[in-house]
Amino acid sequence: KSICTSVNEVICHGIPDSRPLAEGDTVNVDVTVFTEGMHGDCSATVCVGGVNPVARRLVEGSLRCLQAGIAAATPGWPFSELGRAIESVATELGYSVVRQYVGHSIGDQMHTGFQVLHHYSPSESSRMEPGMAFTIEPMINAGTFRAAAWDDGWTAVTADLARSAQFEHTVLMTEHGVEVLTANALVPAS
Predict the structure, then answer these.
(1) Contact (CB, 8 A) for 24 and 51
(2) SS3 label, residue 40
(3) Of the candidates 147, 132, 144, which has an alpha carbon nearest to the alpha carbon of residue 177?
(4) Model's pTM, two decimal places?
(5) How far is CA 88 from CA 94, 96, 143, in A?
(6) What is the 3-state secondary structure (H, E, C) of 86-117?
(7) Helix %, strand %, coil % for the chain, to 5?
(8) Tens digit of pLDDT for each residue in 75-125?
(9) Cα 33 versus chain centre, distance
């Protein structure tokens, strides 16, 4: 699908349907586009009406995690530094970072060759090099980092049914730093 809508405990890949959103829901809208031979991918979690302070804090914390990942994107640095920055913010806020679903390289194909972990893994030694395009899309959970799949084989939910929130940008590594390619999208840039 080109648009996924993930409500409350749905981590990612929520399939849009006719279910009406209710006051207090949070919904992640994940949009993928293909234009001029290239893919772009971005998402944002929004609050529906009056969301309780706990859910609002999760949404705001998830945005902070994305911003920390973007700030850590530095030419020549290992991708593990993105995970370290994101997980550090999530842990400080009392949240977990989904490990089962990750960012990815992107270009003429949606997924082109490498993954971007959003948690710290010291064994992740691949380096960010100029010319690399990839997504930074941490999925932040109020409870466990573990995920479960619905029977549709596509929709991913938190294993404990706690809420999840996500923000995503597609970025390009340049010689001088990172350029946010989806900066004009729904997601606030850092």
Answers:
(1) yes
(2) strand
(3) 132
(4) 0.93
(5) 10, 10, 16
(6) HHHHHHHHCCEECCCCCEEECCCCCCCCCEEC
(7) 20, 35, 50
(8) 999 999 999 999 999 999 999 999 999 999 887 777 788 899 999 999 988
(9) 16
